[in-house]
Records
---
Amino acid sequence: MPHQPQHPHLDPRSPLVLETRDLPRRPGALHAVQRKVPAPKDLGLELIGVPHGAELDLQLRMESVSEGVLVSGIVTAPLAGECGRCLRPISDTLDVPLQEFYAYEHSTTDETTDEDEVGRLQGDLIDLEPALRDSVVLSLAANPVCREDCPGLCPECGVPIDELPAGHTHEQVDPRWAALSQIKTSEE
Ligand SMILES: [Zn+2]
Ligand SMILES: [Zn+2]
């Protein structure tokens, strides 16, 4: 019976797939992985994330350990989003650490752990995308702000308070009404 892979085959040419064939399976062996890849879709949260296709800079290393490969390093990416208070655009740069262990197929770790808790090599290949998503998404604020003390929007007119003159208020009475109320006062 042909071997049935548990996963759909990974494409070794995919930018978020790492090839370990040239990494000796000897603990301590190291390979640097430095690449710039386009960001996959939906890499982020509702209000902020890495734009689809924006350049992700991966500065990683793969290290052979006794039961698999440890991938670690830094991911740098541009961020775009919207301030949760004033709704103005935010652009920023994200630098996040990434560290994930991938067990060799048929290793003791492979046989004794759940696939949800420990990553797996698929043949010689590593699918980096799930770990990358976790690292990026977990580092993002669910309510991003353009700056810590962003005062938000005027509740009356919806204009960002930053863009309004100091002392902006909606309590001003129309001058004609002001005149009328003066007349009323003098009648009393
Ligand atoms: Zn703001
Ligand atoms: Zn206002």
---
Amino acid sequence: MFESPANPETVFTYGAPQLKFGSGSSDEIGHDLGAFDVRRVLVITDPGIAATGHPQRILEQIAGTGIEARLFDAVHVEPTDVSIAEAVDFARDSGPWDAFVAVGGGSAIDTAKAVNLLCSNPGELLDYVNAPVGKGRNPEKQLSPLVAVPTTTGTGSESTTVCVLDVLEQHVKSGISHPRLRPTLAVVDPRLTITQPAGVTAACGMDILCHALESWTARPYTSYERKTADQRVPYCGANPIGDMWSEKAMSLLAGSFRTAVHHGDDEAAREQMALAATFAGMGFGNAGVHIPHANAYPIAGRVKDFRPAGYPDAEPMVPHGMAVSLTAPEAFRFTFEASPERHVRAAELLAPGPERPSDAGDLLPRVLTDLMRDIGIPNGIGAVGYDEGDVDALVEGTVKQQRLLATAPREAGEEDLAGILRRSLELW
Ligand SMILES: NC(=O)c1ccc[n+]([C@@H]2O[C@H](COP(=O)([O-])OP(=O)(O)OC[C@H]3O[C@@H](n4cnc5c(N)ncnc54)[C@H](O)[C@@H]3O)[C@@H](O)[C@H]2O)c1
Ligand SMILES: [Zn+2]
């Protein structure tokens, strides 16, 4: 496993935005913005979501309360440094803005976080991106209020302190992570999620599931060396509060995930998925994620020509949630020995029932692959275009994600990661 700390950590932290949840909650955003004393707001979304009419309806509702509101609808699905710079230029040129409202999935919410950062602080995007990709600078000034309105049931970005982006020139995914990036208010209205295509619901739902599972199985916060006050980071490792949100998210998924994919108009299932996404966001936003997310970066970043159903087909992509899920069964087979009881408990939460394989280590991988088959996730990284010859390059990409690998409950070296990736070429 890992070395026992000489001076074990005794402290964990919990942070979350204000939250308004439920059907109809997005009809009150104009009123909610009033509390922040704002006059001009920029509503940020992507073209696919704009086509559903949700952002325009929210904009009109805001304008109806006397606040000037304008739409930016050119967010790139899975944002890049270039797409974010365009959004920032638009916002800086048309500003100043008193607040931002992000309507969309992780792509729109993350873009809005970066726009807010760069409209409140000097410099350029890469100044703030995590080192070594960027300069890792901390935002010195307070950001403006950001209201995050998720339309996917997935990332939990409305709760987290992170913005994820593709840095095109360096061919890597990286991020900006700072407590100031956390949205001020999350407005989660399950009605907005009903228009998600089935393929988006499936990939985003696997993201929820992996957020919950990875934080539930993460290295415990007490297993680290004690930090000083100025060394504390939002991701503490598994802790009692993160555990609570993660367990509840898994139970909610057990009752709703397959239905939400196959019967997208089932409002009860959509509501449970929205709750699960929010709960998992509050869990992993404080505990952290590990091997499946670390692998997802190169799996998404080195895409060849895979084009998933339900997503814009202008460019090849392996969507975030799908990329995360493809190595999850084998990653949890690998981490099983670090905490067998947690892996078994997670499988029981996700698939309550009497049927059990004789090998306990096989239980969670089997629950995951059964689910992935049922909801149409591709059969392993082979099915999205990778083969044996790509494994070394993927490992190289994964080992760069040291911040995530440091949260794994078992140390994963290059050989271990290559084994996980190789066994994930075909899952069933
Ligand atoms: N900040 C975080 O904490 C965090 C966590 C996980 C992932 N991410 C990032 O979030 C991004 C992925 O976000 P996502 O999975 O939420 O999806 P997304 O925002 O990329 O959207 C996926 C697709 O679904 C469409 N769509 C979204 N909602 C819809 C709706 N209600 N009706 C119809 N179409 C809809 C979009 O137009 C888009 O084509 C990635 O860049 C990922 O790296 C961020
Ligand atoms: Zn994720």
